[in-house]
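Minutes, project check-in
Item: structure for the 139-residue chain
Input as provided by the requester:
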Amino acid sequence: MDKKKAIRCLAGLSLLGAIIFAGIQWLNRDAGFISPANKDQVMRGKKHYDFYCASCHGSQLEGQANWRLRMANGRLPAPPHDETGHTWHHPDSVLIDITKHGLVPGKTAPSDYVSDMPAYANILSDSDIIDVLAYIKST
């Protein structure tokens, strides 16, 4: 093989390798982040959900009654986390932020909004929060 062919072959193989590497990185971009496919994560999440979340969001993720209508105190009841709710309109990072810090006016809620959603930053670890969200997604 002459020198020019060898250089072209090496360049082609390098390019192919870079394309394959980029493709693998793209396919794995959020692999396992909040995955309902991880059964252990889902089981841990269900335990935390049942203990910390079900009292407001319901044992079947159904939310509180009339969750779209403001209560006497001006706040909204806890929404469902099933297919009827609005939870999945938010990206995972926002769901984590809401769970960790509660609904923060001007950040994860309108600037004048007050919510009954507690912050779990001092109660649940980031891993626990991700487990809870994996459980919710699994349903």
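Outcome recorded: The chain is about 50% helix and 0% strand.
No further action items on this chain.
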